[in-house]
Amino acid sequence: MRWIYLSPHFDDAVLSCGGLMWEQRRRGEEVAIWTIFAAPPMAPLSPLAQATHALWGFGPAENAPAIRRAEDDRAARRLRVHVRRFPFLDCIYRRSPDGDPLYPHSVFVPPHPQDADLPRRIAARLSRFLLPQDCLVSPLGLGGHVDHLLTRRAAESLPWARRYYADFPYVMYDSPALLAAIADLTSEYFPISEHGLRVWWRGVAAYASQLTSLWKGEGTLQQALHSYWARERGILLWREAV
Length: 242
Prior knowledge:
By secondary structure, the protein is of the alpha/beta class. 40% of the residues lie in helices and 17% in strands.
C-alpha cells in the first residue's frame, strides 16, 4: 500500500499527520504528500491575498509561493516522504472570468458557485497518478476552510480506498464540527512514539512562515501539537463504515 496524504495547502498534511507519516516511513511503507492548491498566483493580488501574505511575514517584493515551496521541501526531507504538487490556485488567488476575487473577504466559507466543477477537475488530475493499491488520506474539512472542503469532495469522487484525517489545528477548538464530521465513520488508531512526535514537530517547524499565524490559543503551536498527540499518544484516522 502507498499512503497518499492529500494536503490542500503546503502545510496541512504535515500539521495533521506528520508524526504518523514518520512512523509509516520508519516501517518501510511508501508515503507521499500531494498538495492540491500549489499553483503560483497571477498578479495583481487581491486585498485578501495581500493581507494573507503580510500575515505570513512576506513583503510585497517577496516571492511567497517560492518560499512556501522551499519550506515544503524542507518538511518532506525531515519526514522522508515524497511530494507531488498540483496546478490549482489557492482560494485567495482564484478569480472569476471577469477578474473579481471569488473569496474577497474570508476563506472560511462555502465554495463559490464558480468552483462547483473544481472537485471534478482535481479528481481527474489526481487519477492520472494513482495506483490500484493506493490509499488516499483526505482532510475531514474541520474549520470550514473552503479549500479543505473542496479537497474532500474531490477525494470522495474517486473510487479508491480512503481514510480521513482531522484538520489540525482546527480540531483543537472545533469539537462539535469533529463530532458531526465523523458521525457515520469508523475510527482507526495509529500510535506515534515520542521520537515520532519530535520529528513531527521538526516537520511542522519547517513551515516557518506559518508558525505565528496558525495558532492563536494559549501557549505555542508546539505545545498545542503536544497536547493533541497526548490525547491518544497517536492520532485517529477515519473510514467509511463497512
